[in-house]
């Protein structure tokens, strides 16, 4: 009887503390939530709102409601006006997906190799780790311009020197591979850095034990390193994929705006919104890009059970 | 005491009135080298005359980027920029944001400009901007090389140009591996629209969309024009010509690595500069004919006053000064910018500095306008669709006939319910 009153009291008290902490947390988070609502939520709401209207960029006040007409609409004369009916949009989607899959795959493979090399102990390792980050540190616009000079067919190191006067960037089909090369060159080091951070959290005594048991380096990599590295690797993959899906600057600098619109979804959206001042149509495209990226994130997270903690 | 009060109020009144008259006007003009320099100097001359201050807003160099920025400024009804420099294809797009200069500028002053250019700046009876300088595509050639290979004059037809370019290229490449016959603007952007319109018109293929708004591009002459241009690539033009804009082409020509170049008049003054390897060896001629006529695309820039300007009166004065005969003469002499005022083409000082102005007068007056008038706010989409179709032919992705047929469908889609 003497124990009973105290027993239920404890959980009540902890629940009280937890509730108080939760309340406190909400108050502390409130400024951040308000800031997010203002800088991310409101523009998103406006974009979705405008995607349902036909409106011009220079006169946003004069708009007419068209429902989902910006997405899919065929006039009585059989003319298709929605962007989902535009083959150029699908070309941009195809090119963006190709760019994302190939560049992220190559970056992961090369990043892993570099991380494994840099993780082993040798002389000048610190220097190498710093040097590795140089491509990542150069602003993308600068490196893209640098590469487009290198691809130039009349004086470029690659265009003239290696390929003997071929203009890789002239044709969007060949340009996409040239762009993938630039992205891989630039971002592999970032990938390597993320993987290296994962590698360094692996316990070294585990490898000593594996050595004692006579496991080869190859087996150690496949049976120990890779499975333990999985969480870090997946987070890196998600980040890189999202980045690659919203790629814009490389295309814009190296191909110009018209061809950029045929090679990236964001370029297509920019062209509609800015060059053609189609505020409604461009917003609809932006909404579609948002949805595509969201679906891919959800797929990633559920299929690989990625944990962000 | 009364005297003191009177004196104080008088000086206060003077202070107020001088404050009201001296204002700061912001002028948006091109951002590179010579163009920016001349813009600054012109503004400074006006400043000195009137006591007003001019702030220069440096715009992006590429015309499409410039338009995007201007549209955002205007949509926000921003008063940051008072005077805008407008491309000849923009008035239809931006008319509602600009002050009607009709009635605000004396009629005689307005009518001194070429009628065709004034028409391009008039939207529904409203004079959106005053012409500042005009532009038309020209053929530049190397006088020394034509002589060396036994040619007496510039080519009259595209076929002649191809033959001459090939011969000179073959000869020159023996000593200079980078030498090429003909450079032009083949990158997929507004510049390609200008170049390709010249080919199509010169072959008698019409102007993409005619003045009534009908899509006319799907015809055999237009297809032939595009196929002809495609045949130049890798034979008389480098493969990379499909990534060149005006400056890339000029770079190659001015370095002495090309026999012919298509470009705008501005390239003349720069080619005669001390750093130019072809100084004194440049000839200028009308672009060749494809059998129908010689055709040059009309370009050029205008000055308009924003509706949202807080200093409209001063801004209009600045526009009148910059577009006036005195300033246009200085710009013609120093930068080879073509005047839009007819009488200046008889000016001796201008002709002495730019001998080709007189002989090519008809090129400037009969230049072909891009279909920005009939296609109104959808002009940019029309231009992109056209340059993309041309680009596909140049890159061997499609043949002329298939390209113009597809383009015709694309334009119908862009037209939708009407321009």
From TrEMBL, chain A:
It holds the Pfam family BPD_transp_1. It is a multi-pass membrane protein. It is found in: Cell membrane. The keyword Ligase does not apply. Its main location: membrane. Coiled coil: none annotated. It comes from the Bacteria. CDD domains: TM_PBP2. GO terms for cellular component: plasma membrane. Keywords: Cell membrane, Membrane, Transmembrane, Transmembrane helix, Transport. The chain crosses the membrane at residues 25-45, 97-118, 130-150, 175-199, 245-266, 278-303. InterPro entries: MetI-like, MetI-like_sf. One of its GO terms (biological process) is transmembrane transport. Residues 93-302 form the ABC transmembrane type-1 domain. Belongs to the binding-protein-dependent transport system permease family. This is ABC transporter permease.
Automatic annotation (TrEMBL), chain B:
Residues 1-22 form the signal peptide. Keywords: Signal, Transport. It holds the Pfam family SBP_bac_1. InterPro entries: Bact_solute-bd_prot1, SBP. Belongs to the bacterial solute-binding protein 1 family. This is ABC transporter substrate-binding protein. It comes from Deinococcus actinosclerus.
């Amino acid at each position: 009887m003497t124990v009973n009153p105290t027993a239920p009291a404890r959980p009540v008290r902890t629940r009280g503390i937890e509730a108080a902490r939760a309340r406190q947390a909400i108050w502390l988070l409130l400024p951040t939530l308000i800031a997010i609502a203002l800088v991310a939520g409101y523009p998103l709401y406006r974009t979705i709102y405008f995607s349902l209207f036909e409106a011009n960029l220079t006169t946003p006040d004069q708009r007419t409601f068209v429902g989902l007409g910006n997405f899919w609409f065929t006039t009585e004369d059989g003319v298709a006006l929605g962007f989902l009916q535009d083959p150029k949009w699908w070309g941009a989607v195809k090119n963006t997906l190709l760019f994302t899959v190939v560049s992220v795959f190559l970056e992961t493979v090369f990043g892993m190799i570099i991380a494994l090399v840099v993780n082993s102990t040798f002389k000048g390792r610190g220097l190498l780790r710093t040097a590795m980050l140089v491509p990542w540190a150069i602003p993308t616009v600068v490196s893209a311009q640098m590469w487009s000079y290198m691809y130039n067919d009349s004086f470029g190191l690659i265009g003239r020197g290696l390929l003997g006067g071929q203009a890789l960037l002239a044709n969007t089909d060949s340009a996409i591979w040239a762009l993938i090369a630039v992205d891989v060159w630039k971002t592999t080091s970032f990938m390597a850095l993320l993987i290296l951070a994962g590698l360094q959290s692996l316990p070294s005594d585990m490898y000593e034990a594996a050595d004692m048991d006579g496991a080869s380096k190859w087996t150690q990599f496949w049976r120990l390193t890779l499975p333990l590295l999985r969480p870090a690797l997946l987070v890196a993959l998600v980040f890189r994929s999202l980045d690659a899906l919203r790629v814009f600057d490389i295309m814009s600098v190296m191909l110009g705006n018209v061809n950029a619109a045929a090679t990236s979804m964001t370029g297509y959206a920019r062209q509609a919104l800015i060059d053609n001042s189609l505020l409604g149509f461009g917003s609809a495209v932006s909404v579609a890009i948002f949805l595509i990226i969201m679906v891919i994130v959800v797929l990633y997270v559920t299929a690989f059970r990625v944990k962000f903690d | 005491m009364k005297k003191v009060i009177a004196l104080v109020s008088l000086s206060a009144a003077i202070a107020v009135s001088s404050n009201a008259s001296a204002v700061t006007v912001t002028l948006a003009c091109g951002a590179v080298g010579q163009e920016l320099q001349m813009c600054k100097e012109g503004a400074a001359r006006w400043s000195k005359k009137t006591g007003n201050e001019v702030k220069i807003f440096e715009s992006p160099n590429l015309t499409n980027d410039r338009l995007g920025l201007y549209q955002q400024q205007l949509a926000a009804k921003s008063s940051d920029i008072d005077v805008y420099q407008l491309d000849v294809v923009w008035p239809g797009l931006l008319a509602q944001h600009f002050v009607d200069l009709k009635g605000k500028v004396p009629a005689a002053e307005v009518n001194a400009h070429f009628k065709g250019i004034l028409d391009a700046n008039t939207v529904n009876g409203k004079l959106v901007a005053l012409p500042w300088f005009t532009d038309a595509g020209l053929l530049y050639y190397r006088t020394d090389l034509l002589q060396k290979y036994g040619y007496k004059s510039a080519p009259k037809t595209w076929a002649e140009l191809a033959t001459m370019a090939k011969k000179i290229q073959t000869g020159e490449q023996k000593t200079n591996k980078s030498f090429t016959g003909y450079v032009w603007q083949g990158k997929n952007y507004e510049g390609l629209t200008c170049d390709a319109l010249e080919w199509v018109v010169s072959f008698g293929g019409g102007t993409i969309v005619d003045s009534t708004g009908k899509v006319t591009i799907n015809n055999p002459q237009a297809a032939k024009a595009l196929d002809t241009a495609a045949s130049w690539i890798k034979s008389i033009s480098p493969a990379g010509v499909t990534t060149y804009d005006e400056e890339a082409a000029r770079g190659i020509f001015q370095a002495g690595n090309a026999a012919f170049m298509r470009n705008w008049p501005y390239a003349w003054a720069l080619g005669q500069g001390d750093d130019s390897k072809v100084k004194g060896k440049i000839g200028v001629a009308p672009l060749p004919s494809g059998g129908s006529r010689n055709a040059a695309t009309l370009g050029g820039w205008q000055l308009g006053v924003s509706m949202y300007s807080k200093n409209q009166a001063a801004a209009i004065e600045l526009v009148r000064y910059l577009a006036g005969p005195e300033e246009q003469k200085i710009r013609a002499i120093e930068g080879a910018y073509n005047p839009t005022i007819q009488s200046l083409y008889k000016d001796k000082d201008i002709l002495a500095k730019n001998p080709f102005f007189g002989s090519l007068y008809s090129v400037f007056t009969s230049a072909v306008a891009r279909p920005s008038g009939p296609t109104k706010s959808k002009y940019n989409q029309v231009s992109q669709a056209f340059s993309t179709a041309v680009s596909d032919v140049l890159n061997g992705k499609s043949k002329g006939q298939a390209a113009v047929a597809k383009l015709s469908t694309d334009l119908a889609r862009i037209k939708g319910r009407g321009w």
